[in-house]
Amino acid sequence: MTIGFFKPHPGATDQQSLALWTADGVSWGAGMNPLVGATRSADDTWIPLPQGTDGDAVVRNFYRGGRSVTVSLFSNPGCSTAFSIGGKSEFEVDVEGVPPVWAEITNLPWPELDNSSLAALRSLAISGGGSGNLLASWSYSRAPLGLDSATVCGSLAECGQGGNGRIGEKSLSPSSRGATVTLQNRGSSIGADDPKTLALFGRSGDGVGLQSNYSSCPAVVAATESCR
Hints:
- With 228 residues, the protein is mainly beta.
- The protein has a domain at 108-216: Sandwich (Immunoglobulin-like), CATH 2.60.40.
- Helix content is 10%, strand content 30%.
- It has two helices and twelve strands.
- It has a four-stranded antiparallel β-sheet with strand order 9-8-11-12.
- Strand 11 and strand 12 (209-216) form a beta hairpin.
């Protein structure tokens, strides 16, 4: 079964990957009609799973199906004309690990920021064209996660690779328990009350990639707007 289409994001610069095709460019989830829809942002590569039992069914079917996906390449927007590389237009890709079922989410080895790091993210302000640093430290209440990178973003909609919303990034050692991320703001100014996100990326022991986001958006009214 087809699980998603990926296309270039219009107007993106330095785009290093195709972006998920959605039904309207806003909704969460993959669009299944390649002729109707839009991408949301550059570097939007993740396919979200439904919460609860529907998502669990996808995870279990993926495991039973052999943990591999077939990538098909097309040369036209309607995804009907094959595009060949080295005489092949389809490639089977093995996927490391298995996504967790819904009940296991809270038991994964998420990194937990300390109070001073949370306060630093909350108070972070940086002018347009300005620079700075964000010092973050974390611990684990369960088994540690092998972190490999961190990013700091203002606008998540522009936080893809090369986007103006990404104001800092840093490679990490799996043994890291803290880092200083150098910031350079290429977009508009970001105030203490504006949305900001620190994302920590890594892999669990069985190879599943995990991303832990800490977002600050005190000016956003809870339950009425997104922190995005």
